[in-house]
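Incident log, support desk, overnight shift.

02:14 A customer reports that sequence design results differ from what the structure should imply. Their input is reproduced verbatim below. On-call engineer (initials T.W.) acknowledged and began investigating.
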């Protein structure tokens, strides 16, 4: 039996989002439209995030669809530094991360640290909204914690 606690044992909430990184968002919107569409497409760029210890900008194109209550996010990296760029430059495409909606992203960073997860991409959008991507050695799947009120950024939990 593995002495390191498993991810399921920390009491994670239900997966809120599955993120796929793709080279051609139009192609995948068409391919996966019958399963996850209709899509909401937008500029998903992230300015001034902390990425691997430094401040970096990333230009991203994003499309959101659903499978039941689970959000399906297509992300096309355009420029800048982000985990999506690494993924594409490694010759990969497809499932990249799973997202969990949490009340306190910083507390969750601490909670999963004993499992080997460390933050690689972190952004505070406003007082009530932040996200963090975490990775661990030997695991190709990134986890994301999103702290955001149900009403959206800046709504203070309303």
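02:41 Re-run completed on a clean worker. Output:
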């Amino acid at each position: 039996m593995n002495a390191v606690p498993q991810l399921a044992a920390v009491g994670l909430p239900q997966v809120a989002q599955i993120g796929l990184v793709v080279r051609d968002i139009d192609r995948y919107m068409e391919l996966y439209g019958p399963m996850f569409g209709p899509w909401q497409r937008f500029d998903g760029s992230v300015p001034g995030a902390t990425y691997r210890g430094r401040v970096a900008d990333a230009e991203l194109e994003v499309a959101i669809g659903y499978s039941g209550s689970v959000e399906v996010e297509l992300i096309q990296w355009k420029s800048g530094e982000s985990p999506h760029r690494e993924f594409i430059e490694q010759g990969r495409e497809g499932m990249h991360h799973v997202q969990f909606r949490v009340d306190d992203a910083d507390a969750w960073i601490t909670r999963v640290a004993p499992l080997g997860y460390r933050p690689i991409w972190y952004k505070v959008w406003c007082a009530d909204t932040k996200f963090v991507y975490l990775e661990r050695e030997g695991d190709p799947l990134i986890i994301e914690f999103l702290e955001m009120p149900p009403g959206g950024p800046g709504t203070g939990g309303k």
